[in-house]
Request: fold
Amino acid sequence: MVMSKIKTRPTGEDVTAFLDSVAEERRRAEGHAMRSLMERVSGEKATMWGPSMVGFGAQPYTNTTGTNDWFVVGFSPRKAAMTIYGIHDSYAAPDPLLDALGPHTTGKSCVYVKRLDQVDQDVLEQLVRNAWRSSHEET
Reply:
């Protein structure tokens, strides 16, 4: 039996070219801002994961397809909202910092922000920092 490879993995594509190609000007600027924040906090260079996610670092995870790598923190500047990965885990206790973030919604493992300029940038940075540190304490 041959297992199919997961689609979301590092591609080697140019992150700057991807962010520059985002159609909406505000979302494009937000993408560059998220990249800057995550590079500063993680000390890692941005990497494209799949066609539309920008990730930082890598860590193994296991699911039904086996053990694969996934980025520690990342984002995708989607049309409806900036999707931020790694700063929220619906299976863990709620992070009280999310209450202080500002307008957002959450999914199973992501936070959706419609306008980056409406959230508290210090809180956002702390959420990214906490997620990065937490992933490195477990290994």
